[in-house]
Amino acid sequence: MRILLIEDDTLIGDGINIGLKKLGFTLDWFTDGQEGENALSLAPYDAVVLDLTLPKKDGLAILKSWRQAGHTTPVLILTARDAIEQRVAGLQSGADDYVCKPFALSELAARLQALIRRSHQKVVPELTFADISYNPETQEVKKSGQLIVLTTKETRLLELFLLNANKVLSRDLIQEKLYSWSDDVVSNTVDVYIHNLRKKLGNSVIKTVYGAGYALSQEKESS
């Protein structure tokens, strides 16, 4: 899943950036409030981690601007532990959740995963489709109860399909979800990962919708 991080503290930002990437998230990090605000419209982000004290434009102003413009992307704000008024103001301005500094990376990741699931109307932690199941906490993928070993990118691609079951995802959208602006991506990368998932989970799991993209569906492929 692709995350937008807006945090001007280099120590905190670097820890989040490195930590979430190790957990398989795709992440773009901005330290400038104005640039961070504009970035939300430039990529299909699944969630935002937003500090409230930023240069050029503070987090609350950014959040209010997003919500007034109709952006519904889940936003998790970072606040100081004793800043109760700041947390309340953030929630009243449209934030979906908050984490107090200092925080554990595992908590941040779990809260982001929960926000993303809720945004896709998935109320239970485990994602399932037909005989395939994925547990975001353990990162385990099973098919008919048997553990399937996937790479990090393959797991994130499967998660994307599970969150959007029966929806057609274009190649460009998949690529934007899996890679940040700083990543080098070759033209056939998405096709390679699709091929690998089919090989491990079965050729019939991911359908090709010709001229449109791919879908996790039990229907026959369209042409």
Automatic annotation (TrEMBL):
The keyword Endoplasmic reticulum does not apply. Keywords: Cytoplasm, DNA-binding, Phosphoprotein, Transcription, Transcription regulation, Two-component regulatory system. PROSITE patterns: OMPR_PHOB (PS51755), RESPONSE_REGULATORY (PS50110). Residues 124-218 form the OmpR/PhoB-type domain. It is found in: Cytoplasm. Residues 124-218 bind DNA. InterPro entries: CheY-like_superfamily (IPR011006), OmpR/PhoB-type_DNA-bd (IPR001867), Sig_transdc_resp-reg_C-effctor (IPR016032), Sig_transdc_resp-reg_receiver (IPR001789), WalR-like (IPR039420), WH-like_DNA-bd_sf (IPR036388). SUPFAM superfamilies: C-terminal effector domain of the bipartite response regulators, CheY-like. The keyword Calcium does not apply. Residues 2-116 form the Response regulatory domain. It comes from the Bacteria. This is Quorum sensing response regulator transcription factor QseB. It comes from Orbus sasakiae. The gene is qseB.
